[in-house]
Design goal:
about 525 residues; alpha+beta; 6-stranded mixed sheet; 15 helices
């Protein structure tokens, strides 16, 4: 670690100077254009240089005002009316009004832009400004998820003039938003520099400081190596990171010059999905046996070093609209029961301690994106499954080619992790027939699931929404489409000289606005 720290200093990395906050992370995004950027690494930056109509409190359940000071929903659930603040300015000083909001939201859903998250806007009929500070958002059918989606960075409000001036380079060579910080400079795969927005005074109400930010300048540094990233915060070369590796979190918690803050709520889950239209996975007994054969408690201990929660459902029990009855339908570690199920399914143990049926070995092909902790997770799962006679064929690919490999459909199972804000958000993303073959890589095409999700999404009341989402969750749970692995936890590690640090969990972006941060 000392050597890594010395290397970082020797490479010219700047120590904290004046009122500059250095934050380290692992990877960069390809661009910072809200509706075209879905990665957490994009959200890290966009939540700070742009704002959304609504904000999400630390509990990840309570939607609060932001650019919209209030909103109303029609009785039929199809029309949202947003009353905007009249004191908001873009970084260039131009006042924001309803036309900017309409432009940004229409750009999000524009088919020509091909936003991968345009479906999260609902089935839009019309978005228009009814006066300078009022926006009318009309849907073809109710979409109860809309307030949650309007807290996410991909619905950020942007400046039309800058978008039209930069064209395809918007979010690459420049940006003009209403966030607490402004774009200063971006060197891809090295650092992103932002400066304080002097106009800012409209931050979310759950911050003590609603603006301007205390910190004058923020530098997000890309430091891929775990040891170097840990050394950089230990030696105050960076003052904040959420990417201390799990193996080192206990060490960071004990370090006298550091503090570690855990997010109150965090909705991010690792799972292994089963492609149900492949020979091995078409039998639910095989899927059940895999769930029974893997020890999530051991994975938490040995891969996440205690800094995660064993997962037995596709979403965390902390998720809005979670059906607690699904916990009674979970399949927890029971290798003897797993063996019996495989015997019943006709998969008999061979002399090599692997199972065979009709001369074919039970050796499902597994694909995943290489990296920590996925590599370690895959190795542990493979080891557990060998104990019950399943020879999982692990294939790990670099991120530059992994998505292409996943598109081939030449696998039986795969590993992913994902963020979500509600049951509807998660289940509509993964389990609708229309979402196959991606992101519904299970190829689960079930009319009942589609019907329940559609009714829950279009529900006008919370009670009605829960009724249908509860049934959809139970349907998915009993169908055993995934092997849930862990519900991850989020920690921010900071030097003691940085005050006001509290971890947010929104979309995995622990810093969020960072308005309360200040140096002692």
């Amino acid at each position: 670690m000392a050597a890594a720290g010395a290397l970082l200093v020797g490479s010219g990395a700047a120590l904290a100077q004046g009122n500059t906050l250095n934050i380290s992370r692992v990877i960069d995004a390809d661009r910072y254009d809200p509706p075209r950027s879905t990665a957490r690494s994009a959200g890290d930056i966009l939540f700070q240089i742009a704002d959304t109509l609504l904000s999400l409190d630390y509990d990840l359940k309570t939607v609060k005002p932001l650019l919209a000071k209030s909103w109303k929903v029609s009785d039929d659930g199809k029309t949202y009316t947003f009353a905007l603040r009249d004191d908001v300015k873009f970084c260039d000083g131009r006042a924001m009004d309803a036309d900017d909001v309409v432009y940004s939201l229409k750009r999000w859903i524009d088919p020509e832009l091909k936003s991968p998250v345009r479906g999260r806007a609902g089935k839009v009929k019309e978005i228009k400004a009814t006066d300078k500070f009022t926006v009318h958002y009309e849907l073809d059918e109710p979409f109860s998820e809309l307030p949650f989606q309007l807290t996410q960075f991909f619905s950020s409000i942007v400046d039309k003039n800058t978008v039209e001036k930069l064209g395809a380079d918007f979010g690459v060579k420049g940006f003009n938003g209403t966030g607490p910080y402004c774009w200063e400079n971006w060197v891809p795969r090295q650092e992103f520099v932002m400066k304080r927005n002097p106009h800012y005074k409209w931050g979310p109400e759950f911050y003590q400081n609603r603006g301007p930010a205390h910190i004058e300048r923020v530098v997000w540094k890309i430091i891929p190596e775990n040891s170097t990233r840990l050394a950089s915060v230990m030696t105050n070369q960076v003052q904040l990171t959420q990417y201390v590796p799990q193996i080192a979190l206990d060490q960071a918690m004990k370090a006298p010059n550091l503090k570690v803050e855990k997010a109150q709520s965090y909705l991010w889950t690792y799972y292994i999905g089963f492609k149900v239209d492949r020979d091995f996975m078409s039998d639910i007994r095989v899927r059940q046996a895999i769930n029974l054969g893997v020890d999530q408690v051991s994975l938490v201990k040995n891969v996440w070093f205690g800094h995660a929660v064993p997962a037995y459902t596709p979403v965390s029990p902390d998720t809005p609209d979670f059906n607690e009855k699904t916990l009674g339908a979970t399949l927890k570690y029971d290798p003897e029961r797993a063996k019996k199920l495989l015997d019943e399914a006709g998969w008999k143990m061979g002399a090599d301690n692997f199972r065979y049926k009709d001369g074919k070995k039970l050796a499902p092909v597994f694909y995943a994106i290489s990296g920590a902790p996925t590599n370690q997770m895959a190795e542990a799962v493979q080891g557990d499954l060998r104990k019950i006679g399943i020879d999982m064929q692990v294939n790990l690919f670099d991120a530059t080619i992994a998505w292409g490999k996943l598109a081939t459909q030449e696998f039986d199972s795969f590993a992913m992790s994902y963020p979500y804000v509600s049951v509807g958000d998660a289940y509509n993303l993964y389990f609708r027939s229309a979402a196959a073959p991606t992101p519904n890589r299970m190829n689960w095409k079930d009319p009942l699931t589609d019907e329940l999700l559609a009714k829950g999404t279009a529900a006008v009341t919370a009670e009605e929404r829960r009724k249908y989402y509860d049934q959809a969750q139970m349907r998915i749970q009993e169908s055993v489409l995934w092997l849930p692995i862990v519900h991850e936890q989020l920690h921010l590690t900071a030097t003691n000289r940085l005050d006001g640090v509290r971890a947010h969990g929104i979309y995995g972006c622990g810093v969020y606005k960072g308005l309360d941060y200040k140096f002692k």
